[in-house]
């Protein structure tokens, strides 16, 4: 589905991963999950992973976060990032979290070239709804690709 989303205020943990170290993202999630439920002003029950920026020399700046209504009372040790209002192509993957890489690959390599859309320079979002179980990796997830019409 294609959906225009309002600005999002995120609070979480951030790390820049070289592409060869991208496998370290689950350990960042493990650290963040200890904070989940302790962050004030949370909007909903979802968690978000966002690839905030990427460059060949620096790698991928990635955040594990929740959305908040405002940045008041952010616990010490967490960071804030604002994701601008953007239109996303949203893809639901009902399977296990291990399907994330092939899902993203299919979106970029198959769906996008045939879609009538181009990717925008904005964060790619991973959405983990309340049905997602971070312990087992089950419950499904969504990938939100920022897009605009060609």
Approximate shape = globular
Strand content: 35-45%
> What is the C-alpha radius of gyration, as a whole number of Å?
15 Å
Helical residues, percent: 10-25%
Task: Give the uncertain stretches in residue-range form.
Answer: none
Question: How would a crystallographer describe the biggest sheet?
Answer: 9 strands, antiparallel
Alpha-carbon distance between the two ends: 17 Å
Number of helices: 2
Order of H and E elements: EEHEEEEHEEE
Q: Would you report the number of β strands? A: 9
SS-derived structural category: alpha+beta
Quote the average pLDDT. 94
Give the topology, please.
Elements: E1 2-5, E2 8-17, H1 25-33, E3 47-55, E4 59-68, E5 79-83, E6 86-93, H2 100-114, E7 117-119, E8 124-128, E9 141-149
Antiparallel strand pairs: 1-6, 2-4, 2-5, 3-4, 3-8, 6-9, 7-9, 8-9
List keywords for this structure.
nine-stranded antiparallel beta sheet, globular, 150 residues, 16% helix, 2 helices, alpha+beta
Commentary on this structure:
By secondary structure, the protein is an alpha+beta fold. It is about 15% helix and about 40% strand. It contains two helices and nine strands; from the N terminus they run E-E-H-E-E-E-E-H-E-E-E. Strands 1, 2, 3, 4, 5, 6, 7, 8 and 9 form a nine-stranded antiparallel β-sheet that branches.
């Amino acid at each position: 589905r294609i959906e225009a989303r309002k600005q999002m205020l995120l609070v979480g943990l951030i790390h820049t991963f070289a592409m060869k170290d991208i496998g370290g993202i689950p350990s960042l999630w493990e650290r963040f999950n200890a904070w989940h439920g302790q962050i004030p002003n949370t909007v909903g029950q979802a968690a978000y992973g966002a690839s905030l920026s990427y460059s060949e020399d620096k790698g991928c700046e990635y955040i594990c976060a929740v959305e908040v209504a405002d940045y008041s009372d952010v616990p010490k040790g967490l960071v804030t990032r604002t994701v601008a209002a953007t239109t996303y192509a949203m893809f639901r993957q009902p399977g296990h979290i291990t399907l994330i890489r092939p899902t993203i690959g299919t979106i970029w390599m198959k769906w996008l070239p045939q879609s009538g859309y181009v990717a925008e320079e904005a964060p790619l979002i991973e959405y983990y709804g309340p049905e997602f179980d971070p312990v087992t990796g089950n419950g499904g997830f969504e990938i939100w690709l920022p897009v605009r019409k060609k």
